[in-house]
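>> Question from a student workshop board

For tomorrow's exercise we were told to take the sequence and the ligand below, predict the bound structure, and bring the output to class. My setup keeps failing. Could a helper post the expected result so I can at least see what it should look like? The ligand is adenosine monophosphate.
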Amino acid sequence: MRENPEKLKIIRKPVSLQKFSKKILSSGKSIGLVPTMGALHRGHASLIEMSAKNNDITIVSIFVNPTQFGANEDFAKYPRRLRADLKLCREAGATIVFAPQPKDMYPLPLSTFVHNPKLETLYCGAYRPIHFAGVLSVVAKLFNIALPTKAYFGEKDFQQLHLIRRMAVDLNFPVNVVGAKTIREKSGLAMSSRNEYMSAEERAAASSIYVGMCEAKRLLRRGETSVVKLKEAVRGIVEWAGGKIQYVEIVNKGDLTPMTGKISKKAVILLACFFGKTRLIDHLEL
Ligand code: AMP
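>> Workshop helper replied:
Here is what the output should look like for this input. Compare the format with yours to find the bug.
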């Protein structure tokens, strides 16, 4: 990680950040934005480092966005630890941390949302009905507040990244959306702020997600092209380890349509499952 020579600045108010960003852009400098919900880990750091390398200014937003959580989800218990997050941001090369209060992001309850009716109801969207409209709407707001030249998102949230890319194209946001590889623990478990909800045993068992997806990839290399069989291989290994699968799908990488029959074009496994009460998502390109 690279130490940023400048002092990290915290901005709390959307109007203040917008003013700052306008000034930066008018001086001909570029802005990289890394939207996060905080409780930062090495996965987030990789995005910040990528932005710091490729932009004059890097803004990390830290905001647990209420509009993307369902009524029975973990909004209240989502980990919040700004001080540790600031240290990670500084070490990874961020210039600004934007940490607004919900009342500043939503002075009025949001009544205008960004939807992608087709994609927001598939996969994770089938189980989290308001989630993607909440995500797209807050990212649209962040784009308008931070005015980024480039914005960095993890492939870890594969469906989210696809939806955000599509929003930027469909709505002509003048921002280049950059996707970044998933950073994993040694065990293969994808790093996530939600991993800390799990007990040590659950966490160890959850490495079966990556093992299962790698097994599907191995089977495909050996000639198994049946979508059903490959999905069964993933499911079998995760369930054997005590996970409860919510969905496992193999989808077309380009447009996220589900594959049936035989694997044809570039394919990606998408899955969501529970270990104990913790919901985890992951993906692997085949
Ligand atoms: P979150 O704070 O969970 O909303 O994530 C903020 C950003 O970091 C999103 O673009 C995520 O996809 C990305 N991200 C989360 N976990 C990882 C990871 N393990 N590797 C790479 N990027 C990640």
